[in-house]
Amino acid sequence: MSPRRVSEIYARTVSNFADNVMATTRIANNTLFANIDAYKAFVQREKDDVKEFSRIATNTARTFEQTSRDVARV
Prior knowledge:
Elements lengths: L2 H71 L1
């Protein structure tokens, strides 16, 4: 084996390793950002659900209040 051939093999090995690290990092970043986007959607849906539950509770309280007033008048 010539020193040139050894250096070529070494250079290709290092280049391949660097390419693999970059690809793995890209996949990890894509996965992370996809999970962040999914979490944002989940949080937004939960916020909307809490607003809806609050509206339901408010309407129920108003209904009980009105019913209590109606019963008290009779």
